[in-house]
Task: structure prediction
Amino acid sequence: MTSTGLPESLIATLPGTAYTDPGIFAREQEHIFEAMWFCAVRAADLAGPGAFRTVQVGRESILLTRARDQSVRAFFNVCRHRGAKLCTQESGEVKRAFQCPYHAWTYDLTGKLVAAPNLTKMPDVSRTEYGLASVATREWLGYVWVCLAENPPPFDEVVQDVVARLGDVDSIERYDVESLEVGRRIVYDVKANWKLIVENFMECYHCATIHPELTEVLPEFADGYAAQYYVGHGAEFGEDVQGFTVDGSEGLDRIPGVTEDQDRRYYAITVRPQVFINLVPDHVIFHRMYPVAPDRTVVECDWLYLKHVVDSGKDVSRSVELFDRVNRQDFDACERCQPAMNSRLYAKGGVLVPSEHHIGEFHTFVQERLNAGRRE
Ligand code: FES
Ligand SMILES: [Fe+2]
Result:
């Protein structure tokens, strides 16, 4: 027995309220999603000047677009006049400006206020100062990351997160994720707290129970107790398995930079706070989570392949189906847990077995962010 009253093999999870309390969720939005670098959109989704997407980052709606000089821009999706939500669509394209539907204040693709009824009669109104409020952006791995903090932390923190899990940054650079193309995208609306989804992604104790197709391809995952993702380790494909597909049949063309020791292996990493990346020799599966409520998280998942594979219209469905099934199996499990987070039995939480102990580090990360927020 330890001081917590638990046997040595077990450590406590977070209490049930961490997954249900709107106050805790609001603090996570403020001190995690609005404070850290947040992976917002695939850069290629902003195909040309005027193409836009809106995404929920913490409590804020953020508008991302591409300016005439091809640079990606991100703004608070809030009109500077009386605060109407500028764009209500999730994606679309404007010709050269965003016009507020309320009183027609109009902003160009760099956010500058370029027109408004009677604006010429208000010469003292600065068109930059009353332009859209911009948000810091960075592009990496072909995705646009935004940070809403006034003083964004170094982007290196994101990269370091990857390095800490894979050993070195080259391990991911060799997949050339930036130049790959989206072969399929599936958006999952999951009725579960974002932390349940992260925790599930971090452990493979459940693999033998809920992932029959995945454990066929990766036999070591069938030993749910021993299966661990650890630094530099990739799970090896089974002997008869030809590719990372739903039936173990051959996959698509291998990404040229993938080395011999990365071939026939599957690597899975989490990038705090809301990204999961799976790397296999012929594709990359990239998940972004958008936490929208204590009990609801939207997960957008991209299957990325070599450009010529996507352009040629080759059938990617067998590889998509494998991880789509895995996703549905995982999200079903998370949705099964969510209602119980309100149970009085779970008021003090549950327990983690040894092969899940590393999830404790994630809990520490969440609690440290919230505690630091409290001290500010
Ligand atoms: S609120 Fe946007 S123009 Fe008035
Ligand atoms: Fe899983």
Q: What stands out?
A: The longest helix spans residues 317-337.
